[in-house]
TrEMBL record:
Main location: cytoplasm
Catalytic activity: Endonucleolytic cleavage to 5'-phosphomonoester
The protein's Enzyme Commission number: 3.1.26.4
Listed cofactors: Mg(2+); Mn(2+)
Name recorded for this polypeptide: Ribonuclease HII
Length: 198
């Protein structure tokens, strides 16, 4: 059973999706839950099927006190690196919340202070706290929807299916067709990187 909160007061949970992808943005969400929030299905997005995540997305959006989602795109990722881009996505989603949190709980072990609001990093937080789990679901569903949209432009990479992750098929397509504006140039896109011409 996931816990409702870590602290007293208005607490935001935040998480990201797409950190290990070769293409597309890294996407973060921030969520503030009401104190009477209950949901027995919400869990770490990786533990849920795509069907369940899509079912939960509108439920989360309709029942939470506040939520926001932000993408950081490949150009920025290549400039500041994926860790900084992930943290920036979380900061930007926190800044878009309609309510200011008094405390932040973050999935993982790395974060930079957000203003003067206290935070705590929780490893596997998305399987321990409801707000982080809800944020992980929103980050994943919004990012997946974006990847499905750009799939139409470059169907040969099958982003509709692999969402930009480094599958064998995705790497084969990079080898065959080269890269797009949606690929992260700072990532090791192929094992024999030297064969890629930018």
């Amino acid at each position: 059973m996931l816990k409702l909160s870590y602290s007293d007061g208005i607490e935001a949970g935040t998480d990201e999706a797409g950190r290990g992808c070769l293409a597309g943005p890294v996407t973060a969400a921030a969520v503030i839950l009401p104190s009477n929030f209950k949901n027995t299905i919400i869990n770490d997005s990786k533990q849920l099927s795509e069907k369940k995540r899509l079912l939960l997305q509108p439920i989360i959006e309709d029942t939470v006190s506040a939520f926001a989602v932000q993408h950081i795109f490949p150009e920025e990722i290549d400039k500041i690196n994926i860790l900084n881009a992930s943290i920036l996505a979380m900061h930007k989603s926190l800044s878009k919340l309609q309510t200011n949190p008094e405390f932040i709980i973050v999935d993982g072990n790395k974060f930079k202070p957000y203003g003067d609001i206290n935070h705590v990093c929780i490893v596997k937080g998305d399987s321990k706290y409801l707000s982080i789990a809800a944020a992980s679901i929103l980050a994943k569903t919004y990012r997946d929807a974006y990847m499905e949209q750009i799939h139409e432009e470059f169907p040969m990479y099958n982003w509709k299916q692999n969402k930009g992750y480094p599958t064998k098929e995705h790497r084969e397509a990079i080898k065959k067709y080269g890269i797009t504006k949606y690929h992260r140039k700072s990532f090791r896109l192929l094992p024999e990187q030297l064969t890629l011409d930018f």
